[in-house]
Structure formats: structure tokens, C-alpha cells
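Hi team,

Below is the intake form for Protein HflC from Achromobacter aloeverae. Please confirm the fields before the structure is written into the shared record.

FORM ID: S-0412
PROTEIN: Protein HflC
ORGANISM: Achromobacter aloeverae
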Amino acid sequence: MQRLLPILVGLLIILAAASSCVFIVRERDYALVFSLGEVRKVINEPGLYFKAPPPFQNVVTLDKRVLTIESTDAERIQTSEKKNLLIDSYVKWRIADPRLYYVTFGGNERAAQERLQAQIRDALNAAVNVRTVKDVVSAEREKVMAEILANVAKRAEPLGVQIVDVRLRRIEFAPEISESVYRRMEAERTRVANELRSIGAAEGEKIRAEADRRREVILAEAYAKAQAIMGEGDAQASSVYAAAYGKDPVFYTFYKSLEAYRTAFSKPSDLLVVDPSSEFFQFFKSSMGNPAAPTGAQGGLPGSPSAPAAAPAPAR
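The structure came back. Fields below:
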């Protein structure tokens, strides 16, 4: 047993030394092989590789994926109109030259992000300071992002970094001018609304006036037409009355007298103070429908008492 112990220790030492000579490069990483503190090899293909054991050689890995820098606080930038905007942006970037990137930043990703954020801030100021709020917000927003991308990409290339994309995520006014802008917008909308209301009121009055005019015209035309129809009806009625009178004058007189009686005695409370010998009652006491002729000053009728009544009883 004592003889096997040194052998096992030796095997463990050999395995540890062998494992320190082997390393794996993943698909998402770069591998920098250092020899005595100097970069000897850059590996960007995944696989199994060999190296000398430390301290002769060691390996540092860098992320080769596309990374994101998001601004924690919106940048306050002034436009050509001297108005402050709060702009929130983000940047997509990746390591293009691992050797140059490591020499520049020592493999410190945080230092690289801070350096790129400073360059983005400068490019953002340069693009926004020469434009108006309308240009930055809508009219030339794509152009602003393209300018920032080109500016930052050019300045990041000597650092071993590739800028993939730059986007302006949110743009809004600074709090001290937001209220005044909103009030101005509200006043403008109120002015437009009042203008539309006045136009609508004028159009309404115009429509009502036209409707009233057409109503008067229609009523006048209808009245004229009604009068013409009534005139034609009266003419036809007169013609019918005349024809009827010509055929039987006595019956026509009798029929008209009945209509007069019906109209005069339409209510039980009606009271007439009339001479009973007048022509109005010529058919009233005749059972045969023949007119009774007046009998003189006494106003008697044929077959009736000679003494006239002072006044007839209430007609029923």
C-alpha cells in the first residue's frame, strides 16, 4: 500500500498537468492565448485546443455575441430652437478585433461600455443640436439615427468594437417646458375647435333659413292649390244645386228649409223669438211638405187658429 501511494500521487499530478494543457472554446466566445503576458494566438473557432501549462501559457475568453448598451437615464440634449429634449437610446455592439479590444480595455466589458456611452452621447449632441424638435421627433428621426451610427462606428473601430445598430427609443420634452408646450397645444386645439363650431353654426343657420324658405314656398303653393280645388268644388256644387233646383224647385226649397231647421234647433236649449208666420216656418207646420202661405197681418197659416202666438215655445 505504501508503494502504491507515490504512484497515485504521481498520476494525479500528471492528470492535473495534462488538464491544464487542454481548453475548450465555445461558439459564443473568442479565446486569447497568452504566453508570458503577451497575446500569442487568437482563436475564434469553437473546438478543443492545447497549450503549454501555466505559467507558460494561459487563456482569456471574450464574448463574441452582439451586446446591448441601454442608457439608464435619458440624455438631456438641446435642439437648434434652444429646447431641451430627454432622449433615451440603446446601442447594439460586438467585439470585432479581440486582440485590439483586449489591449484597449484589458478585457473589462464595463470599461468598454462606458467608453462607448461617452461616444454615443457626443454623437447624439452633434446630430440633435443642429435640428429642430420636429426634425428629431418625426421628420428626420431615421436620418439622426443613421448619423449617430456612422459617427460612433467610426470612432469605435480603433477600439476593436463594431457598432451594429443605434436606436432612439424615447424622445420627450424636459419637465420645465412640457407644461408650456401642452398649454400651447391646448390653445391651438381650442382655437381650431372654436373655428369649426363657428363654421358649423353658420352652416346651421344657412340650412335653417333655406328650410324656412322652402317651407313658406311649399305652404304657399299648397294654399294656392287648395283654393283652386275649393273653387272648382264650389263651382261644381253650384252647378249641381242649380240643376237640382231646376228639376224640382219646391223640393229644393223644402230640403234647404230642413237643413236650416236642423242648424237652428241643434241644441235643446236653443230659443228663438221669431214671428211664426214668417217664411222661415213655411214648411214647419206642413205634414205634406208643402209651403204654407202667410195669412196676413195676423200671421196665421191655412187650417191654423187665427190668433197668432206672441212667441213660439223653445224649439226642441
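SUMMARY LINE: Confidence is low (pLDDT under 50) at residues 294-316.

Thanks, M.
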